[in-house]
Amino acid sequence: HVESQPNLISAGDETISKVKYANLVSSFQRSGVVDEIILRCRYNPQTFPYEVAVPLLRAFNLLCGPIHTAPRSTYIIPYLSLNTLDLDVKSMSNDDKYLQLRMDIKFIGLSPPSYAYNLVTCVFLTPFTHPGLDIKAARNGAMVRHGVIVSRVVHDSVDRRITVQVDTPVDVLDSSWRQLMDTTDSIIRHL
């Protein structure tokens, strides 16, 4: 079995090569999106089983998902990504007919603890866990293309700011304003 084959890794009923495992880990570090088999390999069934760990991490907004994709589900753990997001980046569309709607939350006085900024990313991503969405998670936020709209949240604990931004075509401006307000409201309620 797996023990006799040093180039294989077992996670529950599934086995993958160590090369594939390393590629999945590398992809996770770049994107913040982790394949379910990585989580299954990391949690010991005797001490902290996967079936307990994932719901617990989700309950505390430390893990987003699952996103049901083939061959396995994926999860998003943005704060472990090596990438960062920049608000000045052009929309994911080459169309210049996009408007940018933006809401800045600036903390004056007592700032939330630094880990709270990372929780904001999971709160932001909660409605976007459908397969087929173009999701980019980073340690300072996330960006999602859903249909013709691009939504992003970027946070900076040093500057004590959270920015929610929606890039939208003019013809769906009304629903984009609603999305911006709903997302901002959800973030504020979770802080």
Highlighted features:
5 helices; 191 residues; alpha+beta; five-stranded antiparallel β-sheet
Tell me about this structure.
The protein is of the alpha+beta class and 191 residues long. Helices cover 32% and strands 29% of the residues. Strands 6-10-9-8-7 form a five-stranded antiparallel sheet, with helices on one face. A three-stranded antiparallel sheet has the order 3-5-4. The radius of gyration is 18 Å and the shape is globular.
Give the arrangement of secondary structure elements.
Elements: E1 8-11, E2 14-17, H1 18-31, E3 33-35, H2 36-42, H3 50-59, E4 64-67, E5 74-76, E6 98-106, H4 114-125, E7 134-138, E8 141-146, E9 149-156, E10 161-169, H5 173-190
Antiparallel strand pairs: 1-2, 3-5, 4-5, 6-10, 7-8, 8-9, 9-10
Kindly estimate the percentage of residues that lie in beta strands according to DSSP.
Answer: 25-35%
Outline: globular
Which strands sit side by side, in order, in the main sheet? 6-10-9-8-7
User: What is the CA-based Rg, rounded?
Assistant: 18 Å
User: Number of helical segments?
Assistant: 5
Helical coverage, percent range: 25-40%
Largest sheet: 5 strands, antiparallel
Mean pLDDT: 84
Order of helices and strands: EEHEHHEEEHEEEEH
Alpha-carbon distance between the two ends:
48 Å
* Low-pLDDT runs: none
Structural class: alpha+beta
